[in-house]
Amino acid sequence: MNVSTILIILLIGAFATYFSGDKLASKVALLFSLAALGCSIVLLNNYNAGENISVINSWINQPKISFALNGDGLGLAMVLLTAALTPIIIFSSFGNEYKNAKGFYALILFMAFAMVGTFLAADGLLYYIFWELALIPIYFIALIWGNGDAEERRKAVVKFFIYTLAGSLFMLTAFIYLYQKAGSFLIEDLYKVNLSACEQFWIFLAFFLAYAIKIPIIPFHTWQANVYQKAPTVGTMLLSGIMLKMGLYSVLRWQLPIAPLAAKEYMTIFIALGIAGVIYGSIVALRQKDLKKLLAYSSLAHVGLIAAGSYTLTLDGLRGSVMQMIAHGFVVVGLFFAAEVIFRRYETREIGEMGGIRTQSPKFTSMFLILVLASVALPSTFNFVGEFTVLYSLSQINIWFAILGGTTIILGAYYMLRMFQHVMLGETNSKTFADVTLNEGVSFAVIIAVLLFFGFYPKPITDLITPSLETILQVINKN
Amino acid sequence: MDTNLALILVLTPLLGFLVNVFFGKSLGKTVSGAIGTIAVAISFVVSLLLFNQITSTGKGIQVTLFDWIQISNLKINLGFLLDQLSVLWLLFVTGIGSLIHLYSISYMHDDENMHKFFAYLNLFVFFMITLVIGSNLLVLFIGWEGVGLCSYLLIGFWHKNQDYNDAAKKAFIMNRIGDLGLLIGMFIIGSMFSTLDYATLKTAIAGATNLNLPLLSLAALCLFIGACGKSAQIPLYTWLPDAMAGPTPVSALIHAATMVTAGIFMVTRLNFVFDLATDVQTVIAVIGAITSLVAATIGLVQNDIKKVLAYSTVSQLGLMFLALGFGAYEVAVFHVITHAFFKACLFLGSGSVIHGLHGEQDMRNMGGLRKAMPITFWTMLISSLAISGVPFFSGFFSKDEILLTAFHHSIPLYVVGSVASIMTAFYMFRLMFLTFFKEFRGTEEQKHHLHESGSLITIPLIILAILATFGGLISLPGSSWLNGYLAPLFTKVAGEEHHLGATEYTLMGVAVLGGLLGILIAYVKYFKQDNVPESDENITGLSRLLYDKYYVDEIYDAVFVKPINVLSKFFRDHVETVLSAAVFGLGKIASEIAFQGKKLQTGSIGLYLFVFVLGLCAIVSYIFLAQ
Amino acid sequence: MGNILNQIGIENYIFLSVVLFCIGIFGVLYRRNAIIVFMSIEIMLNAVNLLFVAFSTYHQDAQGQVFVFFSMAVAAAEVAVGLAILVSIFRNIGSISIDNLKNLKG
């Protein structure tokens, strides 16, 4: 059994979902996503047992492109994140009715397929194909099942599509250039290519454009808030929970090891950019009126910190940012789901129209509060482990980075608690707020359980990702 | 065995929390209250056992559970350290905690969410224990932020009132400012010594040859900022008075006796770091002295009974930091303990009064409660005497030692501390006279319902009053049990035992006289002359300034909160628009080029053919000319 | 074959094809009737074909003639499609003067 199994399961799942009809679609999709989760756990087991789970087949001879999937700890961690979040996302959507459900759920599975592919691909062109493939389902999900005015939505989604696509083209150019040099798209060969500092700079920049738009790092984030707001919540969860991790993951996997000289040379600039994102995102989030937009900007702040951690090029920084990616993936899915739960009852996302939910649904309040606290990295949640590690690594580069990046714990608390106060507390709302359903409760409980468990015991994840990160660092430091 | 004890100690309150969260509602109010109380009481019993063990063996117990966070040069365990300091803290945290739980069963009985209240209280005790017994700074940090969370939950316990929620939020955020300092301090220490573990750190510092002292001082300063946040020192003190929005038992437990002393605990715990950073120690002493004075002046004119006590707490915490600044850790710890006794008693007493008056907190509407609430009166009187430093009550000994230490190091700070103490005596007795003497000034209906509180409320009061009376015995001048007990913790010779010479007796006399003077002024003003504080709009001049707390909240609002919000609006409305327009602009440029280009396509085939031939000629001539 | 070339000379072939090509060009530029333009283009094409064949003989290399076969086949196909388009244009518009065909304006 190797990593391609999970891709096959997801792809078959997407087709099976589509052909199962509208009524069964959601259940079939859940079944296949759970199968994928099970498969990834088995793979994890095999990997820990020392089995080789990578795949390498030649695919096209001229130019030399291989179907190469690399099952190392880092890739597996990201695959696990995807495989764990997909069923949660699908399960959480059971409370909604979607027209043409078969298409909807098939697209979700297809997107999971493409994202898993991106995390596993060990061949530049294959990776690029998966990377772009992931864009297509989310485009349709946001366009067809999104909310708000159709014209505005189309505008936002098309902007997102073109913008990210344009960024990726620079990456493609970089890959083609690298192919000229290396004669192969295989990642090991690309790692080995000798590039002058100038070449590395341009390649680094080309990758950066693609990733900065996807992650997003300021000032390339303008698509984010609008798309998060306009997309259906499932789409927002997929985008924020997993898809933006594709960008962050790619920084670690592709950008840094391929252009290490440039990475070292311009490290401070990119760390500063990430930290600027932290502060900017936090401040903008303060005064948002739309709940989903607020969460979008909070996400901007968090990924800024993760990116800054990655660019430190230290083991702590990389490890912290991977842990923070996973933690943020879970918490942001939970928070967007909370927004959805409120929307199901109040039909609004305006914070000003909410309030006083706590008296009506204490259960929901508790769960929401835990997610809010996880998001502000309270110790004993997984987010704290990640944030602490990242901030520590930043402090090793320059103490001011840690102080400025650390403002996230103040500003984050400010905007999140402010939001919590206006959404949940206050006089009992005149509109009734039905208590959480079993389905909603289970979705929340799973997310919270994951966050708390790894908050106290992050060792399994640390052990999983550390060897691959050390390999990457070796490549970075080889010269 | 030790591991099990430690786990029982920590996990029982957590269990109480879980039971109350999940089943509290169905269990009924009394049962859920009882569960909460018993959970803490069990921890108290375990603390007693541990205390017994520590005093007999004299050695700390180190318990390591498992690896928690792995950072390249730092390995952080989830572990506990039970030594003299932590067990001492445990004793009064769980002891006073149990009493306050007991008290709350009666106090909160009318609240529909009583099970939640107990759940939060238990959670608080859990985090507080974690804070105290953590074996490294990061475990302390779990507790540190955890108690902040519980404080947030409990201040905003009556969550329908947005003002209370604002107060809760403010407390959390101001604490987080301190927490950032604490984190940075940890980063510096971690990178210097590759450990955050107390024991390892102590040996590392003791064994270090080339210490980077400026960096260590910076770390100490950052840690102190953390302590400022949690222990409400200038400039981060403004959350504590607002925190009085929470139910009174919360104010007693969290905002007087236990959580706010966490800063002092941390500094004491890391005494070996602070001892090396003498500049920072000076900063601590100065900030402590100023805080104690500023808070005392504000306390002089407050009319809300809990606000008076809150400012008094800030002021007393300032005194403790004054002692810490001089490296007199055991003195600060001594005052922490006595303060915990009398301040908890005062808060619980004020709670009893508020309970009796159905929520009335303004002292202008009280008075004459002495007859209706005799037990409350007597216990509060004892505690007031203790806090005012009247001889032979516990506060006398501890406060006197602080002032004595200050006198030996810095006369100006001694004066500041003494003035603050005189003010303390004044406002405490102002409170007593306004509340318990003369005629009742409330409504007829309130008067009709006046009654002494039930036994669940009075028993804790009595116990605390007894402790407030005799608590001083643990560290009598000359033969201090406490100093000897804590001695293994400190690198310096534990408390240069003050020889009780003439100077000391004079100072003691001055302090006592000062305290009596404060009481006397209060007596004259509020008993003899029968003054009642003016209503809000009539307050003018200096008292207006004090009454409005030097407008510090307003200043913070104008300097920090407003600008950030304005910036946020500016970013949202302008910067975001510009950035977004820039991206759209790129698209616009492309389509503009296309628009211009399409004009070439005239549709005239003749023209196309002409251009085609022209192009052909151009190519041909190029080929010829190139040769 | 060689002697035919010897008799006439390669220059004459080149002259002929140049003349033919120029006729084609002038036809394309001056005539307005789409069929005539079309025919002129064919003349240009054939001028080139002629040159191909001539040089193929001159160099004693059959490749040129193979090319001509290809280009003739393509030209035939092109003529078939082109005439069909013209017929359909005539049916729709009633004229095949290229001055009237301006629907491709951008």
TrEMBL record, chain C:
Alphabetized GO MF terms: NADH dehydrogenase (quinone) (non-electrogenic) activity; quinone binding
One Pfam family hit: Oxidored_q2
Claim: Membrane is one of the keywords in the record: yes
Query: One Gene Ontology cellular component annotation?
Result: NADH dehydrogenase complex
Catalytic activity, reaction form:
a quinone + NADH + 5 H(+)(in) = a quinol + NAD(+) + 4 H(+)(out)
Return the broad EC class: translocase
Keyword list (alphabetical) reads: Cell membrane, Membrane, NAD, Oxidoreductase, Quinone, Translocase, Transmembrane, Transmembrane helix, Transport
PANTHER family under this entry?
NADH-UBIQUINONE OXIDOREDUCTASE CHAIN 4L, NADH-UBIQUINONE OXIDOREDUCTASE SUBUNIT ND4L
User: What is this protein's function per UniProt?
Assistant: NDH-1 shuttles electrons from NADH, via FMN and iron-sulfur (Fe-S) centers, to quinones in the respiratory chain. The immediate electron acceptor for the enzyme in this species is believed to be a menaquinone. Couples the redox reaction to proton translocation (for every two electrons transferred, four hydrogen ions are translocated across the cytoplasmic membrane), and thus conserves the redox energy in a proton gradient. NDH-1 shuttles electrons from NADH, via FMN and iron-sulfur (Fe-S) centers, to quinones in the respiratory chain. The immediate electron acceptor for the enzyme in this species is believed to be ubiquinone. Couples the redox reaction to proton translocation (for every two electrons transferred, four hydrogen ions are translocated across the cytoplasmic membrane), and thus conserves the redox energy in a proton gradient.
Q: How does it assemble?
A: NDH-1 is composed of 14 different subunits. Subunits NuoA, H, J, K, L, M, N constitute the membrane sector of the complex.
Q: What is this protein called?
A: NADH-quinone oxidoreductase subunit K
Q: What is this protein's gene name?
A: nuoK
